[in-house]
């Protein structure tokens, strides 16, 4: 649908609602007289019509003029003054009009018996018109607030999408930097494995470059990417590093997940969980259930020194931001170093 049609549809609906509402109001006196078994007295109907017309004028002068020009701009005094003048003018016009109808349509009708003074009816009409003006302002402002809220939400959505796109663009070079560092280290002692690693990297980059541009990917596809990444990382590990993986995910799982949402957690494990001289371990576990996906990572803790700028520590911050933007209120992430300082634990649960 074209944008112009999108904006015209609510306006068309609004016009139809107004026409329907006032049509019911104008037809109501006839319907009530007919239902009571009475013949329609056109003189009385014209008087009712004149009264409804006066209220309609008060309603729409506020709806189209006073509220947009005065109330929306904070010019309250001008709106009050305009309504006072409008209501007084309409009350006087209404009562003079009714007198005119009485003398024009029924000149021979005998005068009514003595009743309440006309001032009482005028005060009644003034009160009713004040309520009509207030109703008009409330409807118009509520519609304006609705439009402003819709515009705010659209702007927020666009900002969120732009921020997510920015995070994805940051993730590509971050992921590539860490992987190239591994291949660079591998070239020094095993050229054949380095060549294989470059081929593996090319497959991984296809996933990064293409799937990362989508909102979600099937969980099985993301798990394949993570398996390949882990195998690529294994190539340069020494014998004192133990890597355990467990994927309790259906091979054909079509659960939709944000692409590369877990990779920074795994990168962090390989970066801070390995010692070149001491025994080290990394344990990675993924679990899928109908309502959630869990990623649990435990690794020995060997934090990098402040002088080591590999990755610059932006990975976990990206994870937090992407989770807030993609799964607000639908995730739990517990991570940190164990009390003895020997193990880093990360448990991420995403509610699908």
CA radius of gyration is: 37 Å
User: What's the overall average pLDDT, rounded?
Assistant: 80
Shape: rod-shaped
The count of helical stretches stands at 8
Total strands: the figure is 7
Q: Summarize the main sheet.
A: 5 strands, mixed
Query: What is the distance, rounded to the nearest whole angstrom, between the alpha carbons of the first and last residues?
Result: 30 Å
Structural class, from helix and strand content? Answer: alpha+beta
Strand order of the largest sheet: 2-4-5-7-6
Q: Order of helices and strands, N to C?
A: HHHHHEHEEHEEHEE
Strand content: 5-15%
The poorly predicted ranges are none
3D structure, described in words:
With 352 residues, the chain is an alpha+beta fold. Helices cover 62% and strands 13% of the residues. It has 8 helices and 7 strands. It has a 5-stranded mixed sheet with strand order 2-4-5-7-6, with helices on one face. A two-stranded antiparallel ribbon has the order 1-3. The radius of gyration is 37 Å and the shape is rod-shaped. The mean pLDDT is 80.
